Structure formats: C-alpha cells, structure tokens
Amino acid sequence: MRKFFSLAAVAGLCAGALYVGAQETATTSTSGKAPHYIERERMVLVPKAGPQGLDVLEVYADVPGRHPLVVMTHGSAVDHAEHAHVTPWAQLNQALWFARRGYVVLVVVRKGYGRSGGVEDGHFGGCGSHGSFEESGEASAEDLREIISLAAKLPEVDPAVVLSVGVSTGGFAQVALSADPPKGLKAAISFAGGRGSDGKEHNCDLGALESAFHGFGKSAAKHGAVPMLWIYAENDHFFPPSMAVKFDEAYRKGGGADEFVMVPPYGDDGHHLYGHPDAWPEQVAAFLKAHKLLPLGDSVLPLPAVPDVPAPPGLHGRGLDGWKRYLAAAPFKAFAMTSDGFWGDSYGQFDQAI
To answer: What is the pTM of this model?
Structure first.
C-alpha cells in the first residue's frame, strides 16, 4: 500500500540545492521480483522561483546504478485561475510509463504555476503581452534547464542521457529547449505543442506563433538538430491539423528537423491525448527505440501494486473497477459513493486553499 509521510530532514535535489518541503511514496509491484518504486515530491530552489522554488515530482524504479533522465512538464489552461491548481501528480501515469522503461523521471511545475514560485512563462510573450512567443517559450525552457542541471548530481541519474517531454505549452517548451539544447539532451517529445489557443480552434496570433517555430528551427539548425517527436491528434481543438502542419512547415523552413505524427481522433478533444498513456505508447516507443533511448530494450518493469484495501460496502460492477483505479491513482484524491451505489472519484488534483 502506498503510504505518505513527511520528510523532516532530507538532502536537497543536489549538493547546494535546498528544497522547502517534500513528501514521498514508496511502492512495490505485484511481483516479488519487481523493483521498489520511489515517488518523491520536492520544492526545489532555483533562481527566479523565489522562496517557494519549483514543485518537482521524482519517479523511478529503485534499482542499482545510474539511469537516464526524463524531465516532463505540463500545459496551461485557458482559464488562468486554473494555473494555481497545477500539480506534478497529475502526470504520475505518464511518469510511470517512462520509469517502467528504466528512466528517472522529474515532473516539473514551471514558475508561477501551482505551488511553484516566480513569474509564469505567459507573462513574457504572446497574446497581448509586450514580448514574443519566443520569449515565453524560452522562459518555459529555462525551468527545464535548471532542473536538468541540478539533476545531473543525483546519484541515481546518468546525466549523459536526457530526454525531455511536454504537452501543449509544455510541448512548445520542448521546441525552445531543443533550439539551444543543454548538455546531455538526446531527444525531446512534444505533445500538441503550441501557445495562444482558446481551445476552440482559434489562436490569438497565429502568424507570430509560426514565426516563433521558424526562429526555433533556425536556432536548432545552428546548434545541431536534437531528434524531436511531435504528436498531434486530428481532433485537437487547441491546435487542429491545419495549425499543426503550419508549425511543422515553419520549423522545417527555419532549418529544424522533427518527426511529425498526426494520430487519429482521440476522445472528444485530441489535445488531451497525452493524459492517456495507453493512447501513445506505439509512437513513443518506436521513436525511442530508433534513437537507442530505451534503457531496458524491449523489457518493461511491472506496474506498482494496487493497495489491498477493501471496497466500500455496496459497490458493484464498474464501481469496483473504479475503486481499483482510484487506489492506484496519484495522491490528492477522493472517492465518494451514495447509499444507493452511485460513485465518483478525483485524483491528481490540487487546491492551494486547502
């Protein structure tokens, strides 16, 4: 069973890097031979993030040796008020996908979102601000660079092999990061990357966004192209195919290179494809394998065990399946049911007021 506990005194993310607080989950799998999983949230002090630092979740299988690193980051809701509710635990399933394949994963909540301090990236450019989309992308990438640099000193991390992954504005951050890649970055994956959308297939300044992709392509060509995988869905209502193709064309005209994948419609809005790891393993695994970035080869470690907690009395059918998913889900969660068997759950949520 997953158990949370406060760490009163622990080392920082690396020597000289303080963090304000931490909580850790230790998990084991259903197999006696499976590894012990570490899920550890920390507030990491970095420049410009103020006294709070950045909220970072570390996930990995605790096996001997040093292992390649993945940094992952989130998107940005249209409703700005939602930015305060961002938590790295919302990406636990995605993090486990990579951890089960031999990576140490750091999920980064960028400056100004959730519990992370500092000024958020959208302040620096695009959609009515005084700056440009390039500046907002670079502000996003700055947080990833800081964490990659600090993580290089973790005993479980092999800093020679780094992968970066993000969705929406976090996907756009991958393009900015790859334009001037930090040491060790071997590849980046952008899910539905872009900025400035209203979620209704309209962009506040499409021409400026295309120009940003073009500029990042020019910079990437100068620094030596880092392999990139771009994944969009046919029914993405934030960045529909007509936009995604323009982003790709602009990036390539600038001199950048990417593997562009347009997947069939997924759910009601393909922009949320990233949130469902069962929807993209084929494309991602093929990309990683092609670039020799699967540390365990074709092997995949077992999932963590589902805690052995009895279901509430009166729960039947789909409710029992929901209960199992809830037990295995990320922290910050709740499960409720009525006396007549109706039920609901929520997980990976965060409210600063609580």
So the answer is: 0.88
